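Reviewer 2 asked us to include a model.

Predict the structure of this chain.
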Amino acid sequence: MASKFKHIGIMSQNAPRLFKFYECLFDFRKSSAESSPDSEAEYAKAFGYTVLGSKRVATPFDRTIIASDGNIGVAFNRRRPGYNGGLDHFGIEVDDLDDTFNRIKKYPSIDIVKRPSNRPFADYSTHDPEGHIFDLMQPGKKDIKGVWLDPNRKQERSIKHFTMRVMNPEALAEFYIDVYGFKEEEKALEDSNFYLTDGTVTLVLTPWKIKDYFGTEHKAPGMDHVGFKVENLEVFKKDVETLRTADPEWLAPKSPNLEAEYNVVLGLLQSCRYGQHQLPDPEGN
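Predicted model (structure tokens):
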């Protein structure tokens, strides 16, 4: 059983702006085929947009943008009515969907639903025993599109881990190991987190406690943050400041409303064993 983390979904108030931030700082790239008229026409057909006489597509500027760090596809989804903004879900690629479905049968509380046919990655959506949603895809089972067709590339800045705050980390770790075959990384005995890896990217399951948010707005369990590996932290910090200066309105990291309350959240981020520097993106993720 082999599984890989293959995408992360973010609900964005302004997807083009948010993509630009990650494009500049982390070299996120759209699909190599995205700008061709043929691929645009295919996109138009899937989503009901009109192809103009110029052979280009009349799409709204503020629309979902999908890019990649060379391994993980990131969907900057245009936030829809009724959906919360921010880090929303992730996607897993499995080598055998039927085998995965059989493993899931051991967990009667879990359901699987077919995704709409115009989604470029996912075949199905499902969830873990606590209700955290993620997508499933098997290569060859779906006519995938976009960045997932591009060959993997190695780059100096890439996603290394993502963290979910959950009610019962140990039970969820057992679930992800049992059903998806992720490997557990070593940790200190006193560490209450669980670290599950596909060999490249690590999912960190950390305990959620409402008292951890004392002094600020509470945050529900779910996806908490994404961690990046960079080639040189000081160079990266200079890049952030350059971006902040170049476009302080649209591309600067979001500033806190109240410093004291932000420090509570910052303290939780700083407890991550992988973290050496913490910052929000322009929407506060």
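Helices lie at 15-26, 37-47, 97-104, 169-180, 233-246, 259-270. The domain at 158-270 is CATH 3.10.180.10 (2,3-Dihydroxybiphenyl 1,2-Dioxygenase; domain 1). We have added this to the supplementary material.
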